[in-house]
């Protein structure tokens, strides 16, 4: 049975609340074994940049991909939080004056505005490190082999060949606009790599075979491209109050996007095609994949 749009958004919202609660627990002031102290100012900056009521789409994808294949929901919740730590670190650093120079994020002051630049850098560094702590910890009840797969996959999705490399290409693109293939590479790295990991991680958690793992990985790649297209369209079409951050900044900085290069009509048609391709990849799973298929539609149709 297909979940209605209202039911899907309620399901996503409930998942976000659970993720928020687990993140708050993980980012408490209580030290873990071998930690010496958790400095209060640093922890406050980390919490400001993480506990902000976002949609928690990436943890949701980890959890739903794992559930599709029979994975442990408690493990998936922890891995989803690890991924969210990486995502939030990237937002904190992307907002810095030396990068995208944003003053607001989801309707609140960015970390460097609420605290200072040094605190924002350290908060991002700490969140990135903590992500791998969460995966490796005994509380994440997976075989060592699966933990190694998750650490390797997340490292490559996050680093120079993934998200961080994509941000580097994005900054360079402000001075030398890439062609269509270059933009696609940039976006697949900066945005798509973590979404791809989210889907593939569910398969790793569930101990799925390589065929199903590849199927979910490709699904993640498709929705990653769709997510960035939708984001670029929102930057052109949405208002700042709805989006929770400044709009029109891509054009103002001369940033290379497929919307700028190919136009909004082309981008909307491509977004629709990517969504259908992603949905079709999950037909193999039948009705069990309804929630993930609706997630693909949600990504394409979101307003913020």
TrEMBL record:
Quote the CDD domains the UniProt record gives.
Trans_IPPS_HT
Q: Which GO terms fall under molecular function for this chain's record?
A: metal ion binding; prenyltransferase activity
- What are the alphabetically sorted keywords of the record? Isoprene biosynthesis, Magnesium, Metal-binding, Transferase
InterPro entries listed in its UniProt record: Isoprenoid_synthase_dom_sf (IPR008949), Polyprenyl_synt (IPR000092), Polyprenyl_synt_CS (IPR033749), Prenyl_diphosphate_synthase (IPR053378)
Q: What is the protein's species of origin?
A: Pseudorhizobium banfieldiae
Gene3D superfamilies reported for this sequence: Farnesyl Diphosphate Synthase
Q: A GO CC term?
A: cytoplasm
Iron recorded as keyword: no
Source organism, top-level taxon:
Bacteria
What cofactor does this chain's UniProt record say it requires?
Mg(2+)
* Similarity annotation: Belongs to the FPP/GGPP synthase family.
Q: This chain belongs to which protein, by name?
A: Probable farnesyl diphosphate synthase
**Pfam families under this entry?**
polyprenyl_synt
- GO process terms (BP): terpenoid biosynthetic process
């Amino acid at each position: 049975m297909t979940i209605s749009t209202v039911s899907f958004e309620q399901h996503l919202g409930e998942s976000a609340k659970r993720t928020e609660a687990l993140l708050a627990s993980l980012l408490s002031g209580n030290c873990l074994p071998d930690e010496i102290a958790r400095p209060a100012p640093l922890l406050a900056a980390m919490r400001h940049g993480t506990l902000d009521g976002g949609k928690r789409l990436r943890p949701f994808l980890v959890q739903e991909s794992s559930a599709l294949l029979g994975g442990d929901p408690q493990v998936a919740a922890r891995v989803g939080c690890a991924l969210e730590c990486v995502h939030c670190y990237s937002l904190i650093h992307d907002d810095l004056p030396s990068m995208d120079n944003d003053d607001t994020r989801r309707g609140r002051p960015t970390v460097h505005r609420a605290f200072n630049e040094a605190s924002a850098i350290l908060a991002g560094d700490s969140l990135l490190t903590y992500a791998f702590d969460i995966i490796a910890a005994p509380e994440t009840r997976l075989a060592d082999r699966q933990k190694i797969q998750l650490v390797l996959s997340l490292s490559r999705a996050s680093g120079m060949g993934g998200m961080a490399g994509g941000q580097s290409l994005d900054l360079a693109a402000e001075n030398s606009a890439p062609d269509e293939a270059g933009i696609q590479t940039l976006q697949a790295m900066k945005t798509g790599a973590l979404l791809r990991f989210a889907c593939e991680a569910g398969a790793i958690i569930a101990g799925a075979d390589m065929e199903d793992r590849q199927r979910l990985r490709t699904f993640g790649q498709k929705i990653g491209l769709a997510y960035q297209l939708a984001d670029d369209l929102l930057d052109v079409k949405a208002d700042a109050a709805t989006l929770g951050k400044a709009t029109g900044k891509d054009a103002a900085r001369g940033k290379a996007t497929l919307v700028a290069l190919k136009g909004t009509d082309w981008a909307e048609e491509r977004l629709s095609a990517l969504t259908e391709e992603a949905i079709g990849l999950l037909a193999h799973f039948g009705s069990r994949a309804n929630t993930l298929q609706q997630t693909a539609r949600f990504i394409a149709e979101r307003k913020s």
